[in-house]
Amino acid sequence: MRTKAFIFLLPLILGTALGAEQYPATTGRPIDLWPEGIPGYRADGPAEKVVVFTAADNVKPGSFIYHVRHPKLVAYLPPAGTGCGTAIVYCPGGGYVRLPAGTEEGEEPRWLNHLGIAVFVLTYRFGDDGPNAPLRDVLRAIRLVRSHAADYGIHPDRIGVMGGSAGGHLAANASTLYDDPDGKTGSPLDAVSGRPDFAVMNYPAISLRPPYALHPHDGLLGANPSPELINHYSSELHVTKDTPPTFLVTTQGDKSVPLANSIIYYEALNKAGVPAELHLYEKGAHGFGMTPGLGPTSDWPARCEDWLRFHGWIPAAPKT
């Protein structure tokens, strides 16, 4: 793994580690993402491996998957009687290099459960099975959740997608390439819409083009990708009037993914007439997550909650 890629990932782990774990955890329910077989699976691809970090590594202790070969979905449902009928497919970050391997999925899914939102955490593939593998995984997750909406107590027209960093890139791809041939496999579930109803993106790596992409994207596109391939997975180039409403958060302090990524995506959404809200803050390194003590930056969950309530994806706050 390249040194740059590891440096790029460190803030993601440190940001989560510094976050106050104020929301109770719920038990995850595994869901088989591809029961009929993983599409495009390359038997000669690199082996999936789990690396365990300890406090001595100067990152949050935990286990991480490299070269994800067996994508999965884990449902975290709000406690009985507290659900609001909305769901989010949550895409963790990791630079298309690694993802969390354990049950610790970060503070955001627990916060969403607290709001009554059902959360489906996606462990997605990288580029080992081809550059369209992550897109196939996230769209399959949305289609699967939508097709079983009644089983999870959610509405099929209130399913969003959320992600940070590379997970934000994948959320943007799902928002713009939901009907692209690259995201289909010939499964009967292809007939179910893969379009998210809304999207939330934190410090997303929207574009793979220079000057917006500061780090190699070999983990997704492979070495020396063509300009056509780079453009295909640069989401700002594919926004239309049907791209879902989007909430964006980023900071000046992010030295890994320039805030221009969020700006160009917001500009594309605005030009297409798509409802969007962009929050640019001063403080916060890449991957700040729900870290406290960053001034106004730490209030972004409250602003996102306001946005979700305004659009009716969660109920209006009770009057005091």
Q: Give me the side-by-side strand order of the main sheet.
A: 1-4-7-5-8-9-10-11
For the biggest sheet, the summary is: 8 strands, mixed
The portion of residues assigned to helices is: 25-40%
Overall morphology? globular
Protein architecture, described:
The N and C termini lie far apart (53 Å). The protein is built from 9 helices and 11 strands. A hairpin with an 8-residue loop joins strand 2 and strand 3. The chain has one domain (3-310): 3-Layer(aba) Sandwich (Rossmann fold), CATH 3.40.50. The model is unreliable at 1-20 (pLDDT under 50). Helix 3 packs across helix 5 (166-176). 28% of the residues lie in helices and 17% in strands. The strands form 2 sheets. Strands 1-4-7-5-8-9-10-11 form an 8-stranded mixed beta sheet, with helices on both faces. The chain has a 3-stranded antiparallel beta sheet with strand order 2-3-6, with no helix packed on it. The protein is an alpha/beta fold. It is globular and about 60 Å long.
Keywords:
320 residues; three-stranded antiparallel β-sheet; alpha/beta; eight-stranded mixed β-sheet; disordered N terminus; Rossmann fold; 9 helices; 11 strands; globular
Task: Set out the fold topology.
Blueprint lengths: L2 H16 L10 E3 L17 E5 L8 E5 L5 E5 L10 E5 L6 E3 L6 H8 L3 E6 L9 H15 L1 H4 L6 E6 L1 H11 L22 E4 L15 H4 L5 H6 L13 E6 L8 H13 L3 E6 L18 H11 L10
Parallel strand pairs: 5-7, 5-8, 8-9, 9-10, 10-11
Antiparallel strand pairs: 1-4, 2-3, 3-6, 4-7
Helix pairs in contact: 3-5
